[in-house]
Write a structure and sequence with these properties.
alpha/beta, Nucleotidyltransferase, domain 5
Amino acid sequence: MKNTHIIGIDPGKNGGIGRITAWQAKERYLYKTPIYEAYKCPKNIKEMSDLLKTFKKLPIKPKCFLESVHAFPTDGRSSAFKFGMNFGIWQGILSALDIETILVTPQKWQKELNLPKDKKDRKNRLKEIATEKTKIKATLSTADALCIAMYGYENSI
């Protein structure tokens, strides 16, 4: 078992945060299997920051995999601005809290999941995968974040 504290963040408006923790202390295991947690994106910057501050209380420094996304030409200006702003807020909070951050594109973390092309079907499949692998009820808000965290867990160290 590897010592791990991984955070996955889907920075979208209806995004979420996934976390995986597992570590060993000296001769005894504190967690024999990884523990999975999922959170809907907090409503404001203070709550976003406060949530990540609680993650820093564990004995292992967290590593965050933040989904690196961009607006599409078909997005409205207001929507694209809000989307980019949320991504920037997450980057600022992570930097201020000195949490190592790795940007990962959706194409990269979704590569081996064999997802359907249709967005609705893809979102539902991600929800199923996250629930199956973590044994917690993933929602449309938390499924991507949990899958991003799982990608980070499998590709760390």
